[in-house]
Automatic annotation (TrEMBL):
Record's catalysed reaction(s): tRNA(n+1) + phosphate = tRNA(n) + a ribonucleoside 5'-diphosphate
One Pfam entry name: RNase_PH_C
UniProt xrefs under PROSITE patterns: RIBONUCLEASE_PH (PS01277)
Name of the molecule in the record: Ribonuclease PH
Length: 240
């Protein structure tokens, strides 16, 4: 029995609430159970210097956790003067995941910055961030379309959905969407980032205790495909 009493292939309760920040071009409050992340998308008419003059845009991300997002207070990274390695790794993952869905040439010489702020953490903050970030990004691109900022209407700027989910082996059983109680005790922990049509963007998998077999990996992949499929359905409902 899972600590949450969910079935092995059952997601936590997921919600995607759009338009939660007045000033942002796109925003989403995403909740995977007790993991809550506020995501905003900001359009800027500027680019990193190394991209100027190339006729294409950029999508980047920043990620952070509020001090009491966890059981004990964590120090703000700004107070220490630098970001931790985990933070840098996660925000790079978010950025490259979203870029896989965007036609950067059609975007033009503009940058969209995605900010993911974890309000409450109970496992799966990176997967929740990616899933909610796609909704905020979609709203930002819709905001641009409504202002005729694209040539030919910008119909294919956002080419597909992007969602992410965690899977793991908990007490010898492959399970979907780990919360902290499972994540901290799992034999294997993996994160899958996938497109709406089922293609893989990134897989992060680690054997925490016992190495896992190819058969176990395929079972995790099957769970991930099911979970991402459901998340994509929720994304489509959210932006409809």
């Amino acid at each position: 029995m899972r600590p949450s009493r969910r079935a092995p292939d059952e997601l936590r309760a997921v919600s995607l609430e759009r338009g939660v920040v007045k000033y942002a071009e796109g925003s989403c409050m995403v909740k995977f159970g007790d993991t809550h992340v506020l995501v905003t998308a900001t359009l800027e008419e500027r680019l990193p210097p190394w991209l100027k003059g190339q006729g294409r845009g950029w999508v980047t991300a920043e990620y952070g956790m509020l001090p009491r997002a966890t059981l004990e207070r964590t120090r703000r990274e700004a107070a220490s003067g630098k970001q931790g390695g985990r933070t840098v790794e996660i925000q790079r993952l978010i950025g490259r995941s979203l870029r896989a869905a965007v036609d950067l040439e059609a975007l033009g010489e503009r940058q969209i910055t995605i900010d993911c702020d974890v309000i409450q953490a109970d496992g799966g903050t990176r997967t929740a961030s990616i899933t909610g970030a796609w909704v905020a990004l979609a709203d930002c691109i819709s905001w641009m379309k409504n202002r005729n900022m694209f040539k030919n209407g910008g119909g294919n700027v956002l080419r597909d959905n992007i969602a992410a989910i965690s899977c793991g082996i908990y007490q010898d059983t492959p399970v979907l969407d780990l919360d902290y109680a499972e994540d901290s005790e799992a034999d294997t922990d993996a994160n899958f980032v996938m497109t709406g049509d089922g293609r893989i963007i990134e897989v992060q998998g680690t054997a925490e205790k016992t190495p896992f077999t190819q058969d176990e990996f395929l079972k995790l992949m099957a769970l991930a495909q099911k979970g991402v499929g459901r998340l994509v359905e929720l994304q489509k409902m959210a932006i409809a």
